[in-house]
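Entry type: protein chain
Record version: 2
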Amino acid sequence: EYGKAGLCYSKSAQCNMAAQNDIEAKASWREAGKCYRHVDFQKAIDAYKNAIQLNLDADRFGQAARLQEEIGDMLAEDDHLDEAIEAYEQSADYYEAENDTGNKNKRLLKVAHMCGKAKKWEKAIKIFENTAKASADNNLLRWKVKEYIFKAMLLNICMLAEDDIVKKKNIKWPQAGKTINERYCDISDIYASSRECKLIIQLLDCLPTEIQEFKDAIASYDRICKLETWNFELVYFIEKYMEDKQHEAPDLDVGFGGDDGGDGGYGDNDEQKEETAPTQKHNPFDQQVSQQDLADAPDLL
């Protein structure tokens, strides 16, 4: 009976607000949101927002940020990606107001992953790039930089692929991707010497049509360092692009004994070779021998 429980908590919150008991009102709105989450996510969002507003009025930005993140989680579970992105961004803003950079970046990384799933490449790339730059000189975070840059590079490849196949920008592989990768190598020497960087270079060399080599490179890397599901989704997008490009490529077998009328790809005016029947050789044992010849033959015994 989550609906009834949510209704009871909501009425309790309203009574506490009328009595100007904001602390109890916040707790009741939060509990109402938890109950409504199971039956009606819109009512849950409204309840959470009431609790968030009370926290903001009391300058409790950290608590408001956590509740805002719960709204984002709820929306993400229901695949409302755009609304979830907005909720996580708002949560990050509240953490920034609290001067909590670590939690702010965590929520922005959630935004980046959601943007990647929603194919909002540029926004996701910008977040990963900024987070990598901010972490490059931090002794505790610098080892995570290669992960951020690797994901940014996969996103860049996806964006270039989309530009090529949809916007017809005629991307020049692999140089278009390598130029971006070289810029990222300048951000972190750890990334520049990492397996992730080597994999990116291998993938770029396979583009746009060497699908088997592309799969082999991914499989070889995955045996050593398991790729996240999110990364695999980007890999599948790139692979689909490569298949489309392969179908666009001209069939080099046409004109070499294909279904072209049996002329080997040549035109009607080309000289045709005539087939000649082989000359039958004379068999000496086929001759007719007379009785006189047999009588004159020497006796071999």
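Comment: The two ends are 120 Å apart (CA to CA).
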